[in-house]
UniProtKB/TrEMBL annotation:
Record gene name: asnS
Compartments reported by the entry: Cytoplasm
Lineage, opening ranks: Bacteria, Pseudomonadati, Bacteroidota, Flavobacteriia, Flavobacteriales
Signal peptide annotation: none
Annotated organism of origin: Flavobacterium cheonanense
Pfam families: tRNA-synt_2, tRNA_anti-codon
Protein known as: Asparagine--tRNA ligase
Residue runs in coiled coils: none
Enzyme Commission number, as recorded: 6.1.1.22
Record has Ligase as a keyword: yes
Subunit: Homodimer.
Length: 477
């Protein structure tokens, strides 16, 4: 007999037939009621064991975490909370789980403890829900772009260019640490390395993505990205997944429209497909916030917050307007910010971004036209000569979720900018070719997938929305 997923059993259109279910025991009550979960849904199916006719030996082995297979009749449940249950006629223990030792006890565990048990935390309701939501969100990303005719591009993970400037990089090398080959002046001789040159793990697929956009029109990447930044925050990972669309002939406004439409689409898609999981996560968040002071609690419950993003346009504000707002803000005047905003040109810290989004506008914000000297070399210089067509999208509770720009398509302007910043033209010869041969206006952005998952699940630490987080001093599993 083939087993049926718990999700399908709970959604069955009929009752009173024999079924087989396989899964892991969440709880076993009164020597009679197994709450069985197989990961197909957050909901358990109740399996009623005929304890009088089941050997004591077997009953003892029905412990939290054990893998079991049950055969029995699917019947309408008399108990509250579930439509169906299984009247077990045959029970087989597939894999025992020592109740004393199994770390995932049916009680509340701290998120820190669960992180240390990332291989087992996915057996909890919260992490099962988060990981299913993450999977559906990833599918939504592909669905959105594929339906719009974007080409999915796999940009390299090992890159030979270190000029992107998006963040600190991890070196990739096959050279030995002892007896490292050196040049005459004592530097590491990368000519003898595997690739014959210095290589790194990518911090962004953008530059390669641009070359594809200048041939295929609309492309997107969705892949792993690495940053060796030693920032131990709840928003940064050393290994994360980034989505980077790039579109030929799009200007900055088109880019903002795309980003907003895309984010709203994937959230809506996920809300439709993950109702049970999101409802659970909403409850989890409410529970978590009970322990916080009133002022730190969210003003909206999770689903309300997601709906709010779907129903409201993102507020578009220039950097210059944002600086004026921040300069006049109470925390700035009362010197409550760690970094006081005095003048135009200041780089915005996350405290400023969050003030704008959470206190001032109270909705997602797109900041655009940043000062050229706090942004990357490839961004399109505006006519004023001092700002670039950059945009960052800021989300409540998250801060920056998207960073993007219209790209500098003018060869001369781009080269001049690279010279000024000391970026090696020869190294980026292939990138400059896009501006030499058939250059055109184009734009794109990078969205950190985990920051999106954070927002949708209502979690607050990025380590809790990726299966096995990589952070400074931590690469377990
Ligand atoms: P931040 O200012 O938050 O450090 P950034 O400006 O360095 O981000 P970008 O280079 O613009 O980030 O990267 C594009 C997007 O990738 C960001 O908007 C963010 O969503 C995501 N991102 C960047 N760095 C990380 C990281 N270390 N971990 C997870 N996501 C990240
Ligand atoms: Mn950025």
């Amino acid at each position: 007999m083939k087993h049926t997923k718990v999700k399908d059993l709970l959604n069955s259109s009929k009752a009173n037939y024999e079924v087989n279910a396989k899964g892991w025991v969440r709880t076993f009550r009164n020597n009679q009621f197994i709450a069985l979960n197989d990961g197909s849904t957050i909901n358990n199916i109740q399996c009623v064991v005929d304890f009088e006719n089941t050997p004591e030996e077997t009953l003892k082995r029905i412990t939290t975490g054990a893998a079991v297979s049950v055969i029995g009749e699917l019947v309408e449940s008399k108990g509250a909370g579930q439509k169906y249950e299984i009247q077990v006629s045959k029970l087989e223990i597939l894999g025992d789980s020592d109740a004393e030792k199994f770390p995932m006890q049916p009680k509340k565990h701290s998120l820190e403890f669960l992180r240390e048990n990332a291989h087992l935390r996915v057996r909890t309701n919260a992490f099962g829900a988060i990981m299913r939501v993450r999977s559906v969100l990833a599918h939504a990303v592909h669905t959105y772009f594929q339906e719009k005719g974007f080409v999915y591009v796999n940009t390299p993970i090992i890159t030979g260019s270190d000029a992107e400037g998006a963040g600190e990089m991890f070196k990739v090398t096959a050279l030995p640490f002892d007896n490292t080959p050196r040049t005459e002046d004592g530097k590491v001789n990368y000519k003898e390395d595997f690739f014959g040159k210095e290589t790194n793990l990518t911090v962004s697929g953008q530059l390669e993505g641009e070359t594809f956009a200048m041939a295929l029109g609309q492309i997107y990447t969705f892949g792993p990205t690495f940053r060796a930044e030693n920032s131990n925050t709840s928003r940064h990972l050393a290994e994360f997944w980034m989505i980077e669309p790039e579109v030929a002939f799009n200007d900055l406004n088109d880019n903002m429209d795309l980003a907003e439409d895309f984010i709203q689409y994937v959230i809506k898609y996920t809300m439709e497909k993950c109702q049970d999981d999101l409802k659970f996560l909403e409850g989890r968040l409410l529970e978590e916030e009970k322990s916080k002071p009133q002022a730190e609690r969210s003003e909206m419950a999770l689903l309300e917050k997601l709906n709010f993003v779907l129903e409201n346009n993102f507020k578009r504000v220039s950097y210059t307007e944002a600086i004026d707002i921040l300069r006049d803000s109470t925390p700035n005047k009362k010197k409550k910010f760690n970094y006081i905003i005095n003048e135009w040109g200041a780089d915005l810290q996350s405290e400023h971004e969050r003030y704008l989004v959470e206190k001032h506008f109270k909705c997602p914000v797109i900041l655009f036209d940043y000062p050229a000297n706090i942004k990357a070399f490839y961004m399109r210089l505006n006519e004023d000569g001092k700002t670039v067509r950059a945009m960052d999208i800021l989300f409540p509770g998250i801060g920056e979720i998207v960073g993007g720009s219209q790209r500098e398509e003018r060869y001369d302007v781009l080269v001049e900018k690279m010279k000024a910043l000391g970026i090696d033209e020869e190294e980026l010869w292939w990138y400059l070719d896009t501006r030499r041969f058939g250059s055109a206006v184009h734009s794109g952005f990078g969205l950190g997938f985990e920051r999106l998952v954070l927002f949708v699940t209502g979690m607050s630490n990025i380590r809790d929305v990726i299966p096995f987080p990589r952070t400074p001093q931590n690469a377990e599993f």
